[in-house]
Amino acid sequence: MTVPSFHAMGLDAERAGLASELFELNSQVHDQAFGLVGPMPMPPDLTMQQVRVLGHVVKSPGITGNELGATLGVSAPTASGLVDRLVEKGLVTRVDDVVDRRIRRLHATRTGLELMRDMDSMFGRALGVVLQELSADDLRLLCSGSRAMLSALSRVSADQEPVG
User: Fold this and answer.
1) Cα–Cα distance between 83 and 92 in angstroms, integer?
2) pLDDT (tens digit per residue) in 100-111
3) What is residue 75's DSSP assignment?
4) Could you say which DSSP state residue 107 is in?
5) Taking the complete model, does pTM exceed 0.70, yes or no?
6) What's CA 74's distance to the chain center, in Å?
7) Staple 92 to which of 86, 88, 105, 135, CB 3.0 to 4.6 Å?
8) Domain 48-116 class?
9) What stretches of 7-75 adopt beta strand conformation (E)?
């Protein structure tokens, strides 16, 4: 992963240094976890394109089929076919737009969200393997860091424009 220029982002020297260290540590954790638990599991009944579509729907709840097609660089009928298969598998739902009934918005189902979370859970899989090696103090520190990250993500998400 390319490390961003934290000074260019306007961070002071101390925070820029800590952010750089965090990115380096994260890369090391990723590499060691990958060596320990391997790549993300791929569901046997989904194609890479279907996983990609589901990922976009999870990232942008309420995206329309036309928006999805444009994002993927495929025609509307192709996008619709991919979505049809995910709907059949119970991973995505189509919901009528509250303002314009001609528009159908796409949302991941609970099963779809869980599938994406399971696929992207290298940290969780690695933590399960090394849990017995972590002290209660280490776990408290990880929980504290995770709460700080979750709080920051919530603040950034609240500042973003809703999709749709």
Assistant:
1) 7
2) 989 999 999 999
3) -
4) E
5) no
6) 22
7) 86
8) mainly alpha
9) 63-64
